[in-house]
Amino acid sequence: MLTTLIVLGTPALLVVVVSLPWWLPDRIVALRARVFARINGDEGIPVPGDLVGVDRFREVYSHPAAGGRSEGAALSDLFWYWLSPGPEMHQEHLEAGERYDAVARVTRALLAVPRAEAEELARRCAARTLDGVRGLVRLRDLMMPLWAEFSYELVFAEPCPRAARDLIAANANDVVTSLKCTGLRHMDRRERLTRYLLGRLSRVRVPLPPGLTPLQQAHYLQGAFFNTAVVQMSEAMAHLLLVLARHPDVQHRARTGDARYLDQVIAETMRLYPLFGIAHRVTTGDIRLDEHTTIPTGSVLCFNYPEFHRAGFTDPDRFDPDRFDPARSERPVKELNHLPFGVAANRPCPAWRLAPIAMRAVAREVLDRYVLDSSVSHTRSLPSRGPCLLTPLDAPHRPRRALAYLRVRDRWEDVWRGLVQLVLGSYMVWDARRQRLCEHHFTSEPENRHARSDSRPDSRHGS
Ligand code: HEM
User: What pLDDT digit, counting tens, does each position of 365-421 carry?
Assistant: First the structure.
């Protein structure tokens, strides 16, 4: 009987196992969302959503009362956990006030590089990184050392030693890996970088924010320039290069066309794959929407970039750089729902000017050297790190076998990675909620509290 069952069951089991990549990853993603929501609670008002539509996204984001950054949102405990050590000194998470202003001023000074210098620096870092590279790569891994060197030179105005580059890339990789729940945090690795930066504070090319301890200054630099800058630029470039690899016609036009077309490709990449999924704010005053509806003080607003970037576009999931061609665009380009660097009135990205200049220079360097091919799936969170085949322009271009291999490997990696993300993600969300780094910071240091015009509300929103 048992033998009959096994014999009959074997083909069925085989079918289930072989078909795993086609159904398991989606179920794991759905399960992960449910587990996270359960541990994290259903905090937050989604924007766009029932209360605030797409048409008022910018207006509410830009509202002076939509300014609280960390205090009062359970979500902050998660981000503080992933960005440790020193999340309380990360510019992104500082509440408005003197300290924030001092830190933001230094960031602006470090990023204020003339265009030609920025292009030359990016090109030089790309040339060093790409030398000798060919074949199968993971784009995010390829890009990390490049942006580590770039950030180092921005901050210290001298070439980045190899050991420092490796330390910075390992730190940034650790941050982004844990953010995507494909690995746990390695605090020893991150603290090694803090110690390294502590030893180099006197070499930073502009005066650091006054009134901070050396450790706070090191944490500030680590947060803005060696976490955010390296992670965001590597992710943005991985998306851009993967888009080029998956759309040979676009790649050909970008290689042979003018700079404007490459800009359109960058804009459309950031529309479809914005680096921020959700940016949250805690309201520091009431926001009156109409005579019946007010968002009360202390509400958590969750601005959903992917949703906003889909709204108002025909066939929004299709990749089409011509959407940003002024001659073909459905609306004037400035009016499109497209905010890759946030809203100008509410803590936009300080690198909004420099980042596209540097990305363009690096993309040009890559396109001048390689044909890019890929057959992997492309999602906003890109946990695969962007597998891609790089064939030097002067070498024979025969990608068929590599593409077939990448397609199968990607499917199976999705299964394994989904399980890893489910387990590690649940653990980290639980651990972050247990440690409550942000909440403890504000309750133990009352001087850090954001001035609110009112006390916390009883209800989330109402009239
Ligand atoms: C293509 C690359 C990048 C993209 C798409 C990007 C995107 C963004 C966005 C959308 C925000 C605002 C989020 C919000 O409203 O909360 C932001 C904030 C920020 N970004 Fe970037 N970023 C990029 C590169 C960089 C780089 C190179 C740096 C270097 C220092 C940087 C530093 C920051 C900081 C410090 C903030 C917080 C600003 C504040 O709260 O005052 N970003 N970024």
Answer: 999 999 999 999 999 999 999 999 999 999 999 999 999 999 999 999 999 999 999
Q: Is the CB of 229 under 6 A from ligand 1?
A: yes
> Does ligand 1 have an atom closer than 6 angstroms to the CB of 233?
yes
Q: In angstroms, what is the span from residue 249 Cα to ligand 1's centroid? A: 31
- Supply the DSSP string of 360-398, one letter for each residue: HHHHHHHHHHEEEE--S---SS-TT--EEEEEETTS---
Q: Whose CA is nearest to atom 43 of ligand 1?
A: 349
Whether the CA torsion 328, 332, 336, 341 is positive or negative: it is positive
**Type of residue found at 338:** H
Mutate to test the pocket of ligand 1, among 106, 149, 168, 232 (most ligand atoms within 8 A of CB): 232
CA 355 to ligand 1 center in whole angstroms? 9
Q: Rounded to the nearest 5°, which phi and psi values hold at 137? A: -135, 165
Measured distance CA(376)–CA(160) in Å, rounded: 33
Q: Is the dihedral of CA 82, 84, 88, 93 positive or negative?
A: negative
Dist CA 416 CA 25 (whole Å): 9
Handedness of CA 36, 38, 40, 44 (dihedral sign): positive
